[in-house]
Amino acid sequence: MRVLVVGANGQIGKHLITIMQNNSSLEAKAMIRKQEQAAFFENLNAETEVVDLEQDIETIAKAAEGIDAIVFTAGSGPHTGKDKTIMVDLDGAVKTIEAAKSAGVKRFIMISSFDTRREAIQAAPSSFAPYVAAKHYADEWLKRTDLDYTIIHPGALTNDQGTGNVKAATEVERGEVPREDVASVIAASLENDSTIGKEFQVVTGTTPIKEAISSL
């Protein structure tokens, strides 16, 4: 399976491509914003494509040609303003969804925020609410397509080494999860068609990742 990772230069993206390049059934293509980001992926023998999410749908669709699945793990980051939140986390996500449709890519995995329900927007601090709203509407846009989607809602992200064990369900208690484990959850979801049409929250737990994904 050839997988286009959007937001590949992020921490989850780098973990994911490392995992995929060591998995004989998955082949990664890294979509990056700047050419100077390419060296990391070239060292893993992963193909790269330089595309800015603020470019048009056609440009993103061209990067998705010949691809079997898209993983959207891009984010504007905590140090940008509301404008970048809209342009990347909402518009960038929607354009990538539309590009998938245009390129004939049916499988789409979205890395969202832990809770993107309407109630979560209302309850979020004013500085965080725009991000939750952007993720809410991007998720809703994806769910209204005929793509084979999976939406993953990770808990508070850490840079701890992955444990290989998680708790995953439609709703779980808030908690932390290493980015490395989120990447492993994405890879497991790509290989398990039972995750199609589902969305779930994931935090550190006691169940091996593949088993947790299979039980959803």
TrEMBL record:
Residues 7-192 form the NAD(P)-binding domain. CDD domains: SDR_a5. InterPro entries: NAD(P)-bd_dom, NAD(P)-bd_dom_sf. It comes from the Bacteria. This is NAD(P)H-binding.
